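Much of our argument rests on the idea that a fold can be written as discrete symbols. Part of our work consisted of pairing the sequence of a single chain with a tokenised description of its backbone. We regard such an encoding as a compact summary of how the chain folds. The amino acid sequence and the backbone structure tokens for this protein are reproduced below.
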Amino acid sequence: MMPDFSIETLGKCSVDSPLGLAGSTGTGGPVFVRDDQFICYNIEARPGERPLLTRDQLLEVAGPRQKIYFSPSHVHAGIVTCGGLCPGLNDVIRAIVRSLWHLYGVRRISGIRYGYKGFLPEYGLEVIPLDPDIVDDIHKIGGTILGTSRGGGDRTSEIVDTIEQLNLNVLFAIGGDGTQKGALAIAEEIERRKLKIAVVGIPKTVDNDIEFVEKTFGFDTAVVKASEAVAAAHMEAHSQINGIGLVKLMGRDSGFIAVHTVLAVHEANFVLIPEVPFDLEGPQGFLPMLEKRLARRGHAVIVVAEGAGQHFFTQEVKFDASGNRKLGDIGLFLKEKIEEYFKAKNKEINLKYIDPSYMIRSAIAEPVDSMYCERLGNNAVHAAMAGKTKLLIGLVNNEFVHIPIRAATSKRKQVNPEGSLWRDAIEATQQPMSMVNPK
């Protein structure tokens, strides 16, 4: 069942946009987006089965509106980056600032330092004034010029107090699931106070696990960098007697990076992800399958997502400041179990373990990601200036759309074990369809 895709607004748009685009097609130039332009989320259909769709079932197309809510000269915009590092953070900041400044003439833009904690008085963090001169070259470096942190987003009332003190009209929240849940709570507190402040999210997670969003920024760069690590692991494994390359990649709840990486490199023989359980021993277990691979080819490459195999850990469940469950280290666990298994069989192996996670997170965005960040930032500004709120910008069916934050944070997007992506990964690795022993 689809959620309600309706988008909330602060009020009637009565200000003429300064963009000067055409009001209708046929002029041969860029055109404003109308508020009655929508797309379907689910494009699968069978003849005679699709019913008439209502407004709440359609996604609103993103882009510049002919009439906007805010008068640009009165706008004070804030930008905050939260959570872990991700390729493209600076690219998004740059796009937002340049779009506000050059397209709409907004001259008051403030960067909030170190995530939601930058709003909290005990940290004493001053905002950073932003303009095109400051941000023009920041896409050439990794990380975020604003700094980031986890946590603090649950102190909603204090955050909104600071937003009021700063006299912000617009807040752009760049971050993942926890950040967007915080942004929604902030927007709801703003609404309770009857303030006219737009809150627009730009979803950031290398895991690509935001529901209803086709792709989050940083994901493509993560796959590029992860592919380099897997290629190195393959070279090491191929050069040794019974060489084994073990690479742990990001993916707390979703195995998208791991799956896309094995499809990209063609050199991995096993991919282990959170969505697909596996046993270690027994006739169908992972370790006997690894042994068979070594006997057949003399080397093996294993890619494991960090959230895979968590059923092997029995420690008390704890959470980090962002509300994420703390994981057992599946990479080191597998390394130890593989070494123990072959030692017990008196078989020589040469295992190399690679964890490139933080190198990937801090990387500069690849061109394909940088381009995507530019478009996300631009569309976020268009939405905010039109007074739209409680939404994030996402790509769906190759269209930039407005997605209600509540819908996008309702659950995590995951690899479907019955879908074509996982089927293709199985075909690429040639690993068994299942590594779970029959009951």
